[in-house]
Design a protein that fits this description.
Largest sheet of chain B: 6 strands, mixed
Strand content of chain B: 15-25%
Order of helices and strands of chain B: EEEHEEHEHHHEHEHEEHH
Keywords (chain B): ATP-binding, Nucleotide-binding, Transport
CATH class of the largest domain in chain B: Alpha Beta
Radius of gyration of chain A: 24 Å
Organism (chain B): Meridianimarinicoccus aquatilis
Order of helices and strands of chain A: HHHHHHHEEEEEHHHHEHHHHHH
Radius of gyration of chain B: 19 Å
Protein name (chain B): ABC transporter ATP-binding protein
Largest sheet of chain A: 2 strands, antiparallel
Helix content of chain A: 55-70%
Largest interface: A-B, 30 and 39 residues
CATH superfamily of the largest domain in chain B: P-loop containing nucleotide triphosphate hydrolases
CATH topology of the largest domain in chain B: Rossmann fold
Distance between the termini of chain B: 38 Å
CATH class of one domain in chain A: Mainly Alpha
Pfam families (chain B): ABC_tran
InterPro entries (chain B): AAA+_ATPase, ABC_AA/LPS_Transport, ABC_transporter-like_ATP-bd, P-loop_NTPase
Number of strands of chain A: 6
Shape of chain A: globular
Oligomer: heterodimer
Strand order of the largest sheet of chain B: 6-7-8-3-9-10
Number of helices of chain A: 17
Number of domains of chain B: 2
Structural class of chain B: alpha/beta
CATH architecture of the largest domain in chain B: 3-Layer(aba) Sandwich
Chain lengths: 399, 252
C-alpha cells in the first residue's frame, strides 16, 4: 500500500485507526464516574498527543537513525512557533501560511545550527546544539523583544493588520481557521453517560501527523535511511566506501528540524501564543525522553513515547491530596494518612519524580523502550502457544 | 607508467622520519606487496595513499590524478577501495545491506538524497549485491546482522563490500593479521580466487611472508621508511639487504 511493505502497511493502518478513533479510545470511562479523571479524550490533550508525536517522529529521524543526540531541538519548535504567530498577525488567521512558514523558518535555522554543530560528533555535538538552543532562548527572552515580545510571549492583538483577513470580529480576535473552518469547533456525541468530543483542530493535526509518520516510514526504508543507519554503525567505513557523511547527517538534521517546526506551527495554530520557555533546554530534554522511552530507532516508538509522557503529565499532575484521600478512604485513618503522605511527592506538582523513575526503569530494564516491552510480551505469547500444543499432545497418550 | 605512482614521498612525525623518499610504482593488474619489519612505515604509507595523512613532500598519482589533499570518500570515488586490518563493516546492518551501501555509492556518487525510494525496489542494485554475496559464498547469510558473523566471515564480507565497487585498486592492510593458520589460508584462497576471476590491481601491506609469497607478483621491501628493494618474489627471498633488514646484521 502506497509503496509500503506489508508489515509497514499494517503499522500505518494501526496508527491511522488509533488517531482517527482517539476521541472514543481515550474516553473509556463514563462522565461523572470516579475514573473519569483518567479520560484523555478532550481536545487540548489529544492535540498535544499528536503535535508532540510529530516532534518526536522528527527527532527520531536524527537520533534514532544517525545516533546524533541533539539537545537543542526545542529551538526549532520555538522558532517555528514565533514565525507562525507572526503570519497570523500579519497575513491571516487561516493557519496554512502559518504552518508553512513555521516549517520553512525552522528548516533554515536548522541548516545554520546543523552546519556548525555537525562539525563535531558525540558529546560535543550534543553540547553545541544545547548551546545554540540556550542562546536562542536567551535572545528570544531579552534581546529580540521587538520580535518575540520577551517575557510576555508573542500574542495576537486586535490591531494586528492581517492584510489577507480581518483584524477583529465583533471586538474580539477571530479564531484560527482552516479555510473558514474554525479549529476551535467541536462536535459532541453523547452515548449514555459517555460524551465524545470531535475537535476540528485535533483532526487537522492528526492528518498532518499521519503524513509525517508516512514520510518517516518511507525515509526509514529508503537508501537515504540506510545510509543514516550506516553513519551510526561505522562512520569510518562509510567514508572509505566513497560516501560523504556530512551532507547525509545535515539532511537528517534539517528534516528533523522541519518536523520540529511543523510541531511548533501546529501549537500556535491550536493556541496562537508563543513564549520563549518553549525553547528552553527542558523542552529539548523532553523530546529526548519521549524518543528513548518509546524506543529510539523504531517507527512507532516516538509516537508512543510522546503520548505516554503527555498522558502521564496530565493525569499525574491533576491528582491532588483530596483525590488521594478519596482513593485510600477504605483504609484505617492512621495508615491512610501515611500512604497519602508517601504517595504525595509523586503526584501533582511532583509528577516529574514519577516520570524520572519510569524513565530509569525503562532505560535499565527495557533499553529498547516501550516498543521492546511490547515485543517481549508478543514473544511470550508466541512461545506459550507451541507449549500449549505440546501439552495437548503429551496428554493424548495418557488417555 | 603504473596505475599508482608514489614519488619522493617524505613524512615526518616530530623527530621521527616515518617515510623517507619513498618511490613506488604499482602496475595495472598485478598484486604488489609492501613488506617490512615493524615500524618500517608500511601503515604510514597506506594512510598517505587513502588520504588520511598528507605527506610533507612528494606526490601520489593515481590513474593520472593526484590523491593528495583529497578526502577518503573522494579517493574511494576515484577507484581505490580499502580493506582494514580489523574488518570494518556496518555491524548493526544486515549482511545484504552492508553490500548494498557500496553499490549505491558506486552508482549515485558520494551523496544523493534518495529519501523517498525504497531500497528493496532498486532491483538492479539488489541483484548486484546478491550476485557478489554468491561469489564470496555468503548468500545464505544475507539476512544476518553483520556483527554476529565470525571473524573470517567479517573479513570475507569486507572484501565483498570493496569488490562490488569494482575498484581499480584494492588496498589490503595486513588482511591476515591476528588470524589462525586455517583462516589465513582461507583468506589466501579467497584472494587467489578474486584474482583469477576478474582483472584487479591489489596492493597488500603484510608482514606474514607466507601470505606475501603465495600471492604477490611484485614485492617492495620497506625498512625505516625507505624502500630497500623492489623485485619479483623469487629474487626477494635470498636478497642480502632483505635478510639484513629482517634478521639484523647478516652473518658473513
Amino acid at each position: 500500500m502506497f509503496g509500503l511493505n506489508k508489515k509497514d502497511s499494517v503499522l500505518f493502518v494501526l496508527v491511522l485507526f488509533l488517531t482517527m478513533c482517539a476521541p472514543f479510545l481515550l474516553n473509556p470511562f463514563p462522565q461523572g464516574s470516579e475514573l473519569a479523571q483518567f479520560n484523555a479524550g478532550y481536545p487540548d490533550l489529544m492535540q498535544r498527543f499528536v503535535i508532540f508525536g510529530i516532534f518526536a517522529i522528527g527527532f527520531n529521524i536524527l537520533f534514532g537513525l544517525t545516533g546524533y543526540l541533539s539537545f537543542g531541538h526545542a529551538a526549532f519548535l520555538g522558532v517555528g512557533s514565533y514565525a507562525g504567530v507572526w503570519m497570523m498577525k500579519l497575513l491571516t488567521m487561516n493557519v496554512i501560511p502559518a504552518i508553512m512558514i513555521s516549517v520553512i523558518v525552522a528548516g533554515l535555522f536548522s541548516v545554520l545550527v546543523g552546519y556548525v554543530s555537525l562539525r563535531r560528533s558525540g558529546i560535543y555535538f550534543s553540547i553545541l546544539t544545547l548551546a545554540f538552543a540556550q542562546m536562542s532562548f536567551s535572545l528570544a527572552y531579552s534581546v529580540l523583544t521587538p520580535i518575540t515580545n520577551g517575557e510576555t510571549g508573542l500574542q495576537l492583538n486586535l490591531d494586528d493588520p492581517r492584510i489577507l483577513g480581518v483584524s477583529e470580529v465583533n471586538g474580539s480576535i477571530p479564531p484560527p481557521n482552516l479555510f473558514g473552518l474554525s479549529l476551535r469547533d467541536s462536535a459532541e456525541m453523547t452515548f449514555g453517560n459517555w460524551v465524545f468530543t470531535f475537535n476540528t483542530g485535533y483532526y487537522m493535526c492528526a492528518v498532518l501527523m499521519l503524513i509525517a509518520f508516512y514520510i518517516s516510514i518511507r525515509i526509514f526504508r529508503s537508501p537515504f535511511g540506510m545510509m543514516l543507519r550506516a553513519v551510526k554503525s561505522n562512520q569510518q567505513r562509510l567514508n572509505y566506501t566513497g560516501l560523504n557523511t556530512k551532507p547525509y547527517t545535515l539532511a537528517a538534521f534539517v528534516i528533523s528540524g522541519m518536523y520540529a517546526g511543523l510541531a511548533g506551527g501546529l501549537m500556535v495554530a491550536m493556541d496562537p501564543l508563543a513564549g520563549a520557555e518553549r525553547m528552553q533546554w527542558t523542552a529539548s530534554g523532553e523530546v529526548v525522553l519521549m524518543t528513548i522511552l518509546g524506543g529510539a530507532g523504531t517507527l512507532i516508538g516516538p509516537v508512543l513515547g510522546a503520548s505516554f509522557i503527555k498522558y502521564c503529565e496530565n493525569i499525574f499532575s491533576k491528582i491532588n491530596d483530596n483525590i488521594l484521600h478519596q482513593w485510600f478512604a477504605f483504609m484505617p485513618d492512621g495508615i491512610e494518612d501515611v500512604i497519602v503522605f508517601l504517595v504525595h511527592p509523586f503526584v501533582g506538582k511532583g509528577w516529574h519524580l514519577t516520570l524520572g523513575l519510569m524513565f530509569m526503569l525503562v532505560v535499565i530494564f527495557l533499553p529498547g523502550g516501550l516498543v521492546e516491552g511490547g515485543q517481549r510480551i508478543g514473544r511470550l505469547f508466541r512461545r506459550r502457544k507451541p507449549d500449549a500444543a505440546s501439552d495437548a499432545s503429551q496428554t493424548k497418550p495418557a488417555e | 607508467m603504473g596505475l599508482l605512482e608514489v614519488k619522493n614521498v617524505n613524512k615526518r612525525f616530530g623527530g621521527l622520519q616515518a617515510l623517507g623518499d619513498v618511490n613506488l610504482s604499482v602496475a595495472e593488474n598485478t598484486v604488489h606487496a609492501i613488506i617490512g619489519p615493524n615500524g618500517a612505515g608500511k601503515s604510514t604509507l597506506l594512510n598517505v595513499l587513502v588520504g588520511k595523512l598528507i605527506p610533507d613532500t612528494g606526490s601520489v598519482i593515481f590513474d593520472g590524478q593526484s590523491v593528495l589533499g583529497r578526502k577518503p570518500h573522494e579517493i574511494n570515488q576515484m577507484g581505490i577501495s580499502r580493506v582494514f586490518q580489523t574488518p570494518e563493516i556496518f555491524g548493526d546492518l544486515t549482511v545484504l545491506e552492508n553490500v548494498l551501501i557500496p553499490c549505491f555509492a558506486r552508482r549515485d556518487g558520494s551523496f544523493k538524497l534518495h529519501a523517498f525510494e525504497t531500497v528493496m525496489h532498486e532491483r538492479e542494485i539488489v541483484d548486484m549485491a546478491e550476485q557478489m554475496l554468491t561469489d564470496v559464498h555468503m548468500i545464505e547469510k544475507r539476512n544476518l546482522q553483520a556483527s554476529t558473523l565470525s571473524r573470517g566471515d567479517k573479513r570475507r564480507l569486507e572484501m565483498a563490500m570493496c569488490l562490488v565497487q569494482q575498484p581499480k585498486l584494492l588496498l589490503l592492510d595486513e588482511p591476515t593479521a591476528g588470524m589462525a593458520r586455517a583462516d589465513t589460508n582461507n583468506t589466501i584462497d579467497l584472494l587467489k580466487e578474486i584474482k583469477a576471476t576478474r582483472p584487479i590491481t591489489m596492493a597488500i601491506i603484510e608482514h606474514d611472508m607466507h601470505v606475501v609469497f603465495s600471492l604477490a607478483e611484485r614485492i617492495t621491501v620497506l625498512a625505516q621508511g625507505t624502500p630497500l628493494v623492489e623485485d619479483a618474489p623469487e629474487n626477494i627471498k635470498g636478497h642480502p639487504k632483505v635478510q639484513e633488514a629482517y634478521l639484523g646484521q647478516s652473518h658473513e
